[in-house]
Inverse folding.
């Protein structure tokens, strides 16, 4: 599970600023891209990590969120908008809708159970002379308690970049009162009987192995081939990373786990097809988070490769089914696709 948090100080500030009212203007309007929303509305500590710029509610439970994709970001290593940046814009979409339009209190714990993203037109991921304007339009299926309190929602919709349809996005998000979350986490950790001694940190592999250039963005150890087939590696969590650990969490964040799955999928596809991992672009991820990945336990990712397939727009596409494990227990499962396109 991927928990999104916000500090008590920011929650208080948010209540006095920006207006968390769900009141909407009459009819749809043109979205703005001239300034980002307050950082607490998307649960980020660094202003530079805020991509969302505007939002509105359309008919029923259909919402639009605008975001500016940065051309200079720690996770971007070439002239393409990489998967972590697109995923982050979609994550911020869910959080912003919850606070600004559904009146979910700032002090609630947000838990992402599922995230699904598919790119249909990768040409739109190429950077231009100006930061890209992204628009995420989603239809939310709200889940309420008998008293009417929103417990969470499923969402699905479309991603547009500079007016063109990039692909589809979906997911499931639910909320817990802070005290309920703390009790759940305390009980879960007590059942694990975790050794409190310091755990050794695995060494990251060479960036070229996983198709990265910046060593800071390598999040797995040297991959090894498993006896039963496929590949495995240990997750390397750098808690000083400005994006993956923008703020402290009591578990490993989902965006780190999805990046680890992406990197092991690139290894699997490259070694299976004799390719350069740097030529493989992630074009799809479907992640289900079943339990929290603890900060102080060794986390293993395992990838089972699928055969390459041809795609008219994406070129050669390879997929892998990925498991994220701690002590042999599955914390998350993912299907990741990477493509080699010109």
């Amino acid at each position: 599970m991927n928990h999104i948090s916000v500090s008590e100080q920011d929650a208080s500030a948010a209540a006095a600023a920006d207006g968390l009212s769900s009141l909407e203007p009459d009819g749809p309007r043109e979205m703005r891209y001239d300034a980002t929303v307050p950082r607490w509305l998307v649960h980020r500590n660094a202003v530079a990590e805020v991509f969302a710029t505007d939002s509105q509610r359309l008919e029923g439970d259909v919402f639009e969120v605008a975001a500016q994709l940065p051309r200079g970001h720690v996770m971007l290593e070439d002239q393409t908008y990489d998967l972590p940046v697109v995923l982050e814009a979609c994550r911020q979409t869910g959080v912003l809708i919850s606070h600004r339009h559904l009146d979910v209190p700032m002090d609630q714990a947000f838990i992402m159970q599922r995230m699904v993203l598919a790119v249909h037109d990768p040409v739109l991921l190429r950077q231009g002379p100006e930061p890209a304007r992204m628009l995420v339009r989603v239809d939310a299926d709200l889940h309420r308690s008998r008293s009417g309190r929103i417990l969470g929602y499923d969402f699905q919709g479309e991603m547009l970049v500079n007016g063109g349809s990039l692909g589809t996005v979906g997911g499931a998000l639910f909320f817990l009162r802070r005290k309920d979350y703390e009790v759940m986490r305390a009980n879960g950790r007590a059942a694990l009987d975790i050794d409190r001694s310091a755990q050794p940190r695995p060494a990251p592999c060479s960036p070229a192995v996983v198709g990265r250039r910046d060593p800071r963005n390598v999040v797995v150890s040297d991959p090894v081939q498993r006896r039963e087939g496929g590949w495995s590696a240990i997750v390397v969590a750098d808690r000083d990373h400005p994006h993956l650990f923008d703020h402290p969490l009591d578990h490993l964040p989902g965006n780190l786990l999805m990046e680890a799955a992406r990197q092991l999928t690139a290894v699997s596809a490259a070694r299976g097809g004799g390719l350069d991992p740097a030529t493989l672009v992630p074009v799809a991820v479907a992640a289900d988070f079943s339990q929290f990945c603890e900060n102080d336990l060794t986390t293993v990712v395992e990838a089972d490769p699928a055969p390459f397939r041809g795609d008219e727009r994406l070129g050669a596409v390879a997929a892998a089914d990925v498991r994220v494990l701690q002590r042999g227990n599955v914390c998350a499962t993912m299907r990741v696709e990477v493509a080699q396109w010109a």
Q: What stands out?
A: The longest strand covers residues 132-144. Residues 232 and 302 are 4 Å apart (CA to CA). The chain has a mean pLDDT of 90. The first helix runs from residue 8 to 16.
